[in-house]
Write a structure and sequence with these properties.
- It contains 8 helices and 14 strands.
- By secondary structure, it is an alpha/beta fold.
- The protein has 2 domains: 9-149 and 291-310, 3-Layer(aba) Sandwich (Rossmann fold); 151-288, Rossmann fold.
- Helix 1 (17-27) crosses helix 8 and helix 2 (67-82) runs parallel beside helix 3.
- The mean pLDDT is 93.
Amino acid sequence: MNDVEKVAKIFACSQSTVLAEAIAKQYGLPLGKVITSHYSDGEFQPSFEESVRGSRVFIIGSTFPSSDNLMEMLLMLDAAKRSSARHITAVLPYFGWARQDRKDKPRVPIAAKLVAKMLETAGATRIISMDLHADQIQGFFEKPVDHLYASTVFLPYLKSLNLDNLTIASPDMGGSKRAYAYSKALESDVVICYKQRAKANVISHMELIGDVTGKNVVLVDDLVDTAGTLTHAANLMMERGAKSVRAICTHPVLSGNAYQKIKDSKLEELIVTDSIPQKEESEKIRVVSCAELFADVMKAVHYNKSISSKFLM
């Protein structure tokens, strides 16, 4: 029996069980059984409760904080390797630590490279992720990386809104490439926000490059953390005459008082994926599932089929 004839096996890290169940359902397979033993000092040990010998194994888990989530993924990969799985794919809907992708000052780590190395050392033979903070992170790996784009699920939703005078916006200069890609797909204008930071997560000044008067604006970003930049940009655009402001952010990190900031802001809605589970409900946050996207790509990987149709951007 060759690899393709064997049924793939899908397992979930505990932090991504809900998304993994949705992916497995879309794939057409049940989730594999994993039992995690916990020790009183905080250590834990995952255990596959079924054979994975010679199989293609997909392990699903986003590595958002705490660091236990990354550690669980590493332990699962190591367990699969030591159980003689033939192919081990780490499926990371959200690749955490990705914002540390370069040395932006002396004597600091490049955490994204370190995490890539750890995943491969633990046993990953392939990586599947979505909207990495920086495209070049793919080059940190020596194994194949399938870098998916959430535009696959966001664009149909945006088109369904039928917004007139649509304008795509980037909340900072670094996201301009992503904004231009969306504007090309939607045949819309683009505006850019220029911001200066006093320190991490604190904005000292923001200016708008472009005209938003009478426009329905959609801010595009890869993640939303404290929501400071996003809400500041939305409020600024409404002050400059925008008709409405929405935001699409792939990964809803939403730390600190982010939920309250979003509630108090002039954002019409924030559209996110389920790459990270929500900490609380919000009437302004709409979740669009990425489960079908990942299931389709995982199935294509298992059957050695092209996935180029999934790269809309």
